Amino acid sequence: MKKHQLLKGSRLDIFQLINKGYGKFSDIQKLTALNSNELSYHLKRLIDAGLVEKLTEENLGSYILTEEGKKLYPYLKVITEEETPVVAVTAIAPVDGNKVLMAVKENEPDKGKLILIGGKAKAGRSMEKNAKIKAKEQVNIDIDNLRLRCINEFIVKGRHHWLVFFYTCKALNTPKDTVWISLDNLEKYDLFGDNHFLLKEQIGNKEVKFTKTEF
User: Fold this and answer.
1) The pTM is what?
2) What angle do CA 31, 174, 165 make, to 5 degrees?
3) Domain 87-214 belongs to what topology?
4) C-beta of residue 215 within 8 angstroms of C-beta of residue 197
5) pLDDT tens digits along 137-150
């Protein structure tokens, strides 16, 4: 495996954080929301590849990029754009009249933004079943009456390439970590990624549409 091929998912996030000066173990853990074992594993992989080194003595517990890591960093955007995989995800919008229920993004990047409930789909399940399971896992919400409104190809160059299966549905409960917002005033809310487009343009589709958004 080429060294740059290690820089995917959580390891890519860790590598970028260290380059930005967030080198302390505690800072990286807070910003990535990884547990200690997961973070230690990814750091070891980066160290073994010669891309990151651990400082010693008074700076114990801090990490910096090696010279090789620093040389690789300027090419990271091109590398990740070429190797960003296409991932299927579900996004659901529990609707009640002109209101929609949103979750609050807990992790960086974009921590604090409102985001549609959902997540990555698991192979072997229907997308509708994935939507119900992810909704339960993410915010402990039960949903019914799912209706697929669109499939949106959502691309953030160098970071994400998702096929978003966007559903509306009925919420059977309102979890504490969610918030109802008005569909009539979407501009006043800080929404994640393609969520504004989906809620503004696609929520009323009578038939499934295939769309695309890029950032």
Assistant:
1) 0.63
2) 65
3) Nucleoside Triphosphate Pyrophosphohydrolase (3.90.79)
4) no
5) 999 999 999 999 99
